[in-house]
Amino acid sequence: MRERPVSAYLAQALREAQVRRPAPGPVGDTLLAPREALQTDDLDSLAVAAARGDVEALGRLYDALVVPIYRYVAVRVRKREDAEDLTQVVFERIVASLPRYRDRGRPFEAWAFRIARNAVIDHVRRERRHEPLEGDHLLSHGDGGPEALSLRGEQLRELREALAELTPDQQEAIALRFAAGLSAEEAARVMGRQAGTIRGLTFRAIASLRRRLAGEPYGKDAKR
Amino acid sequence: MSVLEIPMGLLDRILGSPPRQLGVDDTMLLRLERGLRRVQPDPLFQRRLRGHVVNRYVAAREGLLREPRPKRQMGKLGRAVLCATLALTLGVSAAGAAAQDSIPGDLLYAVKLQLEEVRMRIAPAAARGELAEIALAERVDELQRLAAAGAWHLVPAATTRLTAARQELIGLKPSVRARAASGQLGPAEVLESGLAEAPPAARDGLERALQTVQPRGSSGGDPAGKPAHSPPRTDSAAQRPARGSSASGEPPGAAHDDNTRAAHADKPSSPPTEGQGNAHAQGRGRSQGNAQAQDEDPGNARAQDKAGGRAEARSPRT
């Protein structure tokens, strides 16, 4: 699959962010990643239908959430196997809790990521810290040739090592906002914080990452 | 930009702080976006998981899926209650075990009495006689130990408890009444041995206790004034002057014995012989005449058995 240019990618992100939100926030709100998933309202209606027993609605919910949830989990854990196991656990818990979901103004996506967050917290408490972070194993195997895959894997590994040095709240904010693609408000709902707090966490996390990864070639200088 | 952001922006520029707003082309943002978005699940895993999730959903909807019960972890309050219960149980058990060996005057003696009372209450009726016997044996043992320790000030109360235990046993097991009448059911030996060394303050209590547990006939003494309950004739006892001798020089207890004899002056009683005195000294044997005298004593309501069994000598307590 041919990869789009970064500029087109960012332009689309800006258009979507401006349509969805009236005023941009101070940090990165305009760079909200476009989601492959459906809009929030659609997800809520699908969740209500699935709670009533609609199998097709459940399938569509799964298709919309599997990649964001997997990304969020994969950024927080160390191994691909753990990411897959946790993703399965998250969806099993979602299915088990679905009959109890009621559309009371609480978005289903935040509800699902709340379940994912709790599963990750339980796992992080048990995992052994000395295991190295994986890089290329988390990438899609369809991404270019072996050399490109190895390079991207190395870059991802460096990025994840830098993320591992952030505070837990900062890691979670980055994972929710950039891996899962949630907005500041949605991430705040998942973490039980205020949106301004999430923005502040994101800002400080990016500043820390910048200091950590300063001087490393990237962008047009990096081999692709 | 707001009014406040202008001087803050200037300050950041002077100090070299990073800009508070991230631009669209911020390299770190770009790196995060590109890097993290490259993380993709394996397509095969994605398909398999979809089937698994749908199957599980259908099974749960049809009621075919039994969710495992979540492990209930004890909270802080539960753990605190459990620890407190264990500590209380161990403490009570330890106190109970330590109380078993206590005597009057010890800190745990009240606990011992309470435990005996509780055991008596919860025991079936058939077992209460045995418990009463055990309790009486305990009172006797306590009295012995008090006498050995020289705690004479505690002897009167101990003898009262002993008497009560004896009465309770007789009430629960009427079959022991015969033994009671013959003096076999009681601590006469203990009391008599205690009399040898007891100070005057304790002698009255011991005398009263001995009268309640001993057949009445043995209470008759030598008309010449020799005390009926003469102390055992051990070497030490023979050499030791009688304690608490009255000014008149009479042996201790003689006045009491005289009073006793005076109270029953109209009752025929065989004078105690030397042999009987020796028997008293050694704590053995009661003559039938004594037993008969005891029968006629209205004060000793329990000694009503006129069977021949009362004539047999009491076996020394071991």
List keywords for this structure.
heterodimer; A: mainly alpha; 64% helix; globular; B: 318 residues; mainly alpha; elongated
Protein described:
The complex is a heterodimer of chains A (224) and B (318). Chain A is 64% helix and 0% strand. Chain A has helices at residues 6-20, 40-51, 55-76, 80-97, 108-126, 146-164, 168-179, 184-191, 195-212. Chain A is globular and about 50 Å long. The model of chain A is unreliable at 18-37 and 216-224 (pLDDT under 50). Helix content of chain B is 58%, strand content 0%. The longest helix of chain B is centred in the middle third of the chain and has 25 residues, at 125-149. The relative contact order of chain B is 0.07. The N and C termini of chain B lie far apart (107 Å). Chain B is elongated.
Question: What topology does this entry show?
Answer:
The complex is a heterodimer of chains A (224) and B (318).
Chain A: H1 6-20, H2 40-51, H3 55-76, H4 80-97, H5 108-126, H6 146-164, H7 168-179, H8 184-191, H9 195-212
Chain B: H1 5-15, H2 27-37, H3 43-61, H4 76-99, H5 109-122, H6 125-149, H7 155-172, H8 177-181, H9 188-197, H10 200-213, H11 235-239, H12 254-263, H13 274-282, H14 288-295
